[in-house]
């Protein structure tokens, strides 16, 4: 029997496991192939929902499902924490002392926000990249009547447009509460424009001006003083704040670092087209776990899954596994609480944001619900 192990139960890992189980159902039924999903979390969380939690538009429960309920027949789920990936022996070692050998491995270990990369950040800032952070931010925003809200960004981080979504949603949240004039919103960014993608920066700049959102470029966060409530940049600027909302730097999974297969930030060197781990023929990498210079977002993993599944199926059938990923990404961008736009781009095609509309906002909300079909490999 040939075994495909998928390490990580997020969108990329779950989607690959389910699609493989459908594509290889006959081989699985004949016990020729086994698909094993290894995930340390018993529940699967739709992380884009955290933004809606922060503005009290939805409860956490709406975005959580039991991981096992999302897996189709033919996928074996191991709810364990991986300790080490040993590519020399083609095995995974788990913290409970067990191990699993594989013929092919898909690394889908994702990324996580680190509040430890900047002094004082953990004690002095809020964020919206975990469920706990979003709930705490929701409560903090609800209790404020006035003040200065400063938004900071560290790199790298996943879902690059999320900070713009948060800022625009914050503006409308305060307006709907009738308190926008009592607040000052200051948006900072580490390079010389409002976003790393030039078309996105050009689109959002007039939006900021229209809404009275202040901004400062070349603001690389150096430290935070949680007692004095001051944030300082490497360039020498500083702001006092009543509420600091930070997009923290993201790092790869601990198992990647401990296994010695990642870069200094814990991301796996990956061929940008085949999505194989560099230096390996039987290990693929998907989503946030890669070191590719593209957006770390759910849609990235969605499109990468097409390439990885096709190559694995061809490998098992003795066919040339030459399918290539073209860098495609598709992201909705909330332009407030009731309008949205989107961007689609690839390695060769730049993004072209359209004017926000209520229709696109409803498409975004609709996708939040049909995501559960997507992760099952049905869309």
Topology diagram in text:
Blueprint: E1 2-7, H1 11-23, H2 25-29, E2 33-38, E3 43-45, H3 50-54, E4 64-66, E5 75-78, E6 82-86, E7 91-94, E8 99-101, E9 104-107, E10 111-113, H4 121-124, H5 131-143, E11 147-153, H6 162-176, E12 183-188, H7 198-211, E13 214-216, E14 221-225, E15 230-233, E16 238-240, E17 243-247, E18 250-252, H8 254-259, E19 283-285, H9 298-316, E20 329-334, E21 340-345, H10 358-374
Parallel strand pairs: 1-2, 1-9, 2-5, 9-19, 11-12, 11-17, 12-13
Antiparallel strand pairs: 3-4, 6-7, 7-8, 10-18, 14-15, 15-16, 20-21
Structure description:
- The chain folds into two domains: 2-110 and 253-329, FAD/NAD(P)-binding domain; 114-249, FAD/NAD(P)-binding domain (3-Layer(bba) Sandwich), CATH 3.50.50.60.
- The chain has ten helices and 21 strands.
- Helix content is 29%, strand content 24%.
- It is α/β, with parallel strands linked by helices and 379 residues long.
- The mean pLDDT is 94.
- Helix 1 runs parallel beside helix 9 (298-316).
- The longest helix is centred in the C-terminal third of the chain and has 19 residues, at 298-316.
């Amino acid at each position: 029997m040939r075994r495909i192990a998928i390490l990580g139960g997020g969108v990329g890992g779950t989607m690959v496991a389910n699609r493989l189980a459908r594509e290889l159902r006959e081989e699985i039924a004949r016990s020729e192939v086994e698909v094993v999903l290894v995930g340390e979390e018993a529940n699967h969380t739709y992380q884009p929902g955290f933004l809606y939690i922060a503005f009290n538009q939805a409860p956490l429960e709406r975005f959580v499902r039991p991981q096992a309920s999302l897996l189709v027949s033919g996928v074996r789920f191991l709810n364990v924490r991986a300790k080490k990936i040993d590519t020399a022996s083609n095995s995974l070692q788990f913290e409970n002392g067990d191990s699993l050998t594989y013929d092919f491995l898909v690394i889908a270990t994702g990324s996580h926000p680190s509040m430890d990369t900047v002094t004082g950040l953990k004690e002095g800032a809020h964020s919206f990249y975990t469920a706990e952070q979003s709930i705490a931010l929701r409560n903090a925003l609800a209790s404020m009547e006035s003040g200065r809200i400063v938004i900071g960004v560290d790199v790298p981080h996943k879902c690059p447009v999320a900070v713009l979504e948060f800022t625009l949603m914050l503006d409308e949240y305060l307006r709907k509460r009738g308190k926008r004039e009592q607040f000052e919103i200051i948006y900072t960014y580490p390079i010389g424009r409002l976003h790393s993608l030039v078309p996105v920066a050009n689109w959002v700049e007039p939006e900021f001006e229209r809404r009275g959102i202040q901004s400062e470029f070349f603001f690389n966060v150096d430290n935070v003083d949680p007692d004095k409530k001051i944030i300082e940049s490497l360039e020498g600027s500083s702001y006092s704040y009543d509420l600091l909302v930070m997009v923290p730097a993201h790092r790869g999974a601990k198992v990647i670092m401990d296994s010695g297969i990642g870069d200094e930030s814990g991301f796996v060197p990956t061929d940008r087209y085949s999505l194989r781990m560099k230096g390996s023929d039987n290990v693929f990498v998907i989503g946030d776990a890669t070191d590719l210079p593209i957006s770390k977002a759910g849609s990235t993993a969605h499109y990468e899954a097409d390439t990885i599944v096709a190559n694995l199926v061809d490998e098992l059938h003795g066919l040339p596994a030459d399918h290539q990923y073209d860098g495609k990404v598709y992201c909705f961008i909330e332009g407030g609480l009731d309008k949205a736009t989107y961007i689609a781009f690839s390695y060769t095609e730049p993004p072209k944001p359209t004017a926000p509309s209520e229709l696109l906002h409803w498409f975004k909300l609709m996708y939040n619900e049909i995501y559960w079909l997507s992760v099952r490999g049905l869309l």
